[in-house]
Amino acid sequence: MVTIITPVLNGVRYLELCVESVLKQRYPHIEHVFIDGVSTDGTVGLLTALSRKYPEKIRFISEPDNGAYDADNKGIVMACGEIIGFLGVDDTYEPGAIQAVAQYFADHPDVFIVYGDNNCIDANGEFIICSRSEEFDLKKTIHGSVGAPGASIFYRKEIFNKIGVFDQLVSDLDFIIRAGKVVKIHRLDRILCNNRIHKGSITWGSWEGRKKQMRNHCIVSRRHGGGIFSGYCRIYYSYVLLDWFRPVFGPIYPFIGRLTGKNIGKTKDDWAIRIKG
Fold it and tell me: pLDDT at position 62, please?
């Protein structure tokens, strides 16, 4: 059994696409667990209808929580599967992804975490770029020169019994570092998911959201022995510096953004993201 956990809060816009990408997987033994944070946009009504239509495939709860990572932990407790994946409500799986992951775990019983590559797509589902991951290297992960796309990571449920569940600060990064110290983590050379980059996304939906995420990555890196100038910290410092110099150099930020492929933006909420891996 594979359990896919999706935290959601007011995610009705992309909910059906998310569900569809799981239901269409060839692998037969899948359940999709939704942890709703008391949505008010029709999400709960749609989840109710979907759970009635697919009672053996879809389950959900709707109650207050302390954010996405708290919801993830609730989902782990609810999960019946031996393998667990976490899929954002605005993200989707590639066809055959779960079958490939389940087969990999079956063929490699000593591996506890598997991850692959992901496509970055925009709000309308249009392809932006393929984000290629590297082979897992604990030192590089701590120091911020390599990382795995979150939605492409799958875990044996047993790992949560070994090292505990997620904390509340960049939990996937912290968790994979903790796990990498005690178990094997492998890369699957395959595109597993589509990560939607859009204005409404929790992490990448605004300048401040991205800056906060980089700050948290820096903190986690330092927590595990990363230097004050680790890759994560340098990225965070660049956000801070750009904010400091925005009053003077703000007009040229869009030009810089086009050169680097990243959204720097004329304003903090400008949206023209193009991620370079």
Answer: 96
